[in-house]
Amino acid sequence: MSNKPRAILTGNAPAPAGHYSQATRSGSNLYISGQLPIRTDKVPLPDRKFETQARQAIANMLAILEAAGGKAEDLCRVTAYIVGVENWPEFNRIYSDMLGGAKPARTVVPVPELHYGHLVEIDAIAAIPDQD
């Protein structure tokens, strides 16, 4: 596989809203852009609960990972930005549930606010083996 960066785009995660890619792959390295809890159809989530938002943001990240040929076990590093440190235990529960046995290095950063009132944003780096 070429080391030249190439954009990854899937319809199973929301399209970028600015001048960036959902992810960029260079060789076996995949860099997933920050994913907000936005549905692919851009229709607002049915509720504003932290759990609903966290599950959607993680699902977006995993959909992009899958589109690049990866799986949760290929994740190397995840960074999550969460509004409200009190949401940390719930984030841990949801994250563990959705990633299963995968345990990449991780940082959780409590922040005062995110775009459009969202409560979580998540980005990641993965190493995806060549499929040749």
TrEMBL record:
Top EC group: hydrolase
One term of GO molecular function: hydrolase activity
SUPFAM superfamilies: YjgF-like (SSF55298)
CDD domains: YjgF_YER057c_UK114_family
Keyword tRNA processing (UniProt): no
Enzyme Commission number(s): 3.5.-.-
Keywords: Hydrolase
Keyword set includes Coiled coil: no
Signal peptide span: none
Entry superkingdom: Bacteria
Region: Disordered, residue numbers: 1-22
One family name in Pfam for this protein: Ribonuc_L-PSP
Family (UniProt): Belongs to the RutC family.
Name of the protein: RidA family protein
Gene source species: Sphingobium tyrosinilyticum
